[in-house]
Every structure is written in structure tokens, then in C-alpha cells.
Amino acid sequence: MADAHSAIADLREQIAAIKARVVDIERAPQNIEAAMAAFDSWVDRIGTAALDDLRLELASEASWTGPRLPIAIVKHDGFAVRDSVYALEMLFGLVALTSREALRKIVMEQLADRMGDERGLSAEERATALASAHADLLAAELMEEGLIRAMDEAGSSVARRGDVPGAVLLAADSVLPS
Question: Dihedral of CA 28/32/33/36: which sign?
């Protein structure tokens, strides 16, 4: 039985290491290509919102005198104040849209400095690494459960970890490693 208890302890260390690997993969930075795609998507989103909110399609009307930035007057602590947050977001969206390449160059340089020699992961690489780690975790947890059941049958009681997934606890004996 001492060997079985030692095997359980070893499996639990292995499970902890795999869980740490999952966290490392989830926290790993994305590669520069993915980061720049996210940047482009963000600029598209805020730039489009800014243009839409300016309602430039009204320029075809004879009475149009140009767009106006929305600066609302709001009450704050009993005083009327100008709320320019929305207008600033709109201006920032327009600046980002019209200066995309300059901003893109700055962001790319910042990313390269921050990442140094680290390559980062693409979405596909992250998904593949996570799938592999989750498969390893499931295999280790099923092995642990199989060993615990064998020890129970032999009359030795072992406490299960509190974080064991229900699917592992309910796994049929036929799927557990022997």
C-alpha cells in the first residue's frame, strides 16, 4: 500500500504541474501578428464608431454646416459641467483611423521591445497547446481515480482531491487505466 500512496502523491504532483502548464499557456502573450490583428480590429471598431457618430451622410443636405462633437452638459454635485468623454473618444477614434500606420508602427515597436526574444503564441498554437495540456490532465486524473478505486477495493481509504471534475468521478471503470 505504501507504493500506492506514493503513486497517488506522484500523480497529484503531476496534476498540479499540468494545471500550472495550462495557466502558463493561457497567460502566454500572443505573437506580434495576432497582437497587430487585434490592434487593427480595435482601430476599425473605434474609427467606424467615430465616423458613424459624426453622421457625415447628412453632408448632402443643403442646410448642413458640418459635424458637431457631442459635448453634453451634465449635473455633477449640483453643478452643470461639460462631459467631453464621448467627444474625446470620437476624436481619438478619428485620429486612430487617420493615423493608423503611424500608430501601428509605434505599437509594433513597443511589442517588439516588450517581448524581446519571446515569440508569443498564435491562436492556433495556443488552442493546440491547451488541448494537449487538457488531454494530459484528463489522463492523469483518470489514472488517479483508477488507483483510488483499486485502493478502495483493497480496503485502503484515500481522500479524493476537492477539485476532481465530476466526469472523472463518474467515469466508468472500463475507461480508467489499469
Answer: positive
C-alpha 115/C-alpha 120 separation (Å) is 8
> Which DSSP letter does residue 95 get?
H
Q: Give the residue carrying C-alpha cell 517588439.
A: 112
CB 81 within 8 A of CB 73: yes
Burial of 145 (0-12, 13-18, 19+ CB in 10 A): buried
* Amino acid at site 18: I
Angle of helix 32-54 versus helix 85-98 axis, rounded to 10: 120
Short-list 91, 98, 92, CA closest to 67: 91
Q: Give the position of cell 492556433.
A: 124
Tens digit of each residue's pLDDT (9 = 90 or more) over 111-164: 999 988 888 999 999 999 999 999 999 999 999 999 999 999 999 888 999 999
Inter-residue contact 87 to 75 (CB < 8 Å): no
